[in-house]
Amino acid sequence: MNEKTYLKWYNKIGYGSGDIAGNVVYALLSVFVMIFLTDTVGMNAGIVGTLIAVSKLFDGVSDIFFGSLIDKTNTKMGKARPWMLYGYFGCAVCLVAIFCIPADLSPTAQYAWFFIAYTLLNAGFYTANNIAYSALTALVTKNNHERVQMGSIRFMFAFGTSMLIQTITVGLVAKFGGGAAAWRTVAVIYAIVGVISNTLSVLSVKELSPEELAEGEAGKEEKKEEEKKEEEKYSLADAFRLLIRNKYYLMICAAYILMQIYSATLNMGIYYMTYVLKNANLLGVFSWAINIPMIIGLLFTPALVAKWGGMYKLNLTGYTIGTLGRLGVMIAGYLGSVPLMLACTAVAAIGMSPLQGDMNALIATCSEYTYLTSGKRVDGTMYSCTSLGTKLGGGIGTALAGWLLAFSGYVGKAAEQSASTLNMLHIMYLWMPMIFNLLITLILTRLNVEQANEELRAGKAGV
To answer: What's the CATH class of domain 17-203+235-461?
Structure first.
């Protein structure tokens, strides 16, 4: 018997386009904020890294907080869509504010300005928007194949947007005259694009009613009513306990954080291209080598998940290939062969694409594990791991890059950097991504939540 479908092709495309909005924020900050602050504003990389790390302490609290609020929200628009819609307007304002640090402020005031705007963006508005966006995967369809499709389409838009921003931003800043004013103009343009795409994405889907979501998951009407009451009662502390009792949630969180640290170290490639390869425009070329293979892989992910009978083996095999690919990049980097680096970068990206495409479906499956073991639905809270991973991992990676640059003696605006800085750039861009991929692969060896759910269902059916 075929599983019921809930979405048309335009719903899936519309939903996926929402990651244009997320990535005009994420890509601009993760790739360019550090070099903007060090080479344009004149800030110290180590201090910036520390401020980013401190900011992440607020993020860690806000993710579960907003996830719980989404679970308890009931409006005509649904649970998640209002948070996704209205949260982004704050994202847009804060993004522009980060690139509008007044030149006439004292250094201390400039650091404070950045910290406040960055924290409001990440711990507040981006959290509300991103968790809501991710939670929609579980709220607009119950069809797992559609969830995988939504994840694949979403990340095609994400990587396409990231690739475009990494390719055109350096040229756009130069076209607008360079300097702080040019960066501000670019930020305003990206913020406007983000508001438009986010709004269209919100309007492209409709959440299922609570009755539709619960249909077929409880035997008797009384039991459904009882479970609904129990769901309404649980507190933030209860939600947190449910999360930490789910070992698969903890594994997904760890993997997602490592994935974002990996991305953050690659995003510091602007320094590697500028000072090691002596060509900042190569950032766009390497972005194509990452994102085009990734998008191709995402196109085939839904079919591969169906063919392999699930996500577990596909993800594990893919990340094994991804780790070997990054090992090849490291070797090619020390050989000084840019073409070989690009080829190995593409191989790594293809291997990593299945997990990117089916991550939302994997989290939905993980949420189902919590429901099967506890009888409680915490979809919004469960999807907090995507926002938590994006911000915590990205923040840690960016902060780590700042600390390592400062430790190596990096001097902003200098035409040449010291030997210690160049060695550090090799470690940051060649060694660290390979190590993070290896750690993710080790986690994936244990992340077979699909089998665990099947065993739980079989056990309940036999009772």
So the answer is: mainly alpha
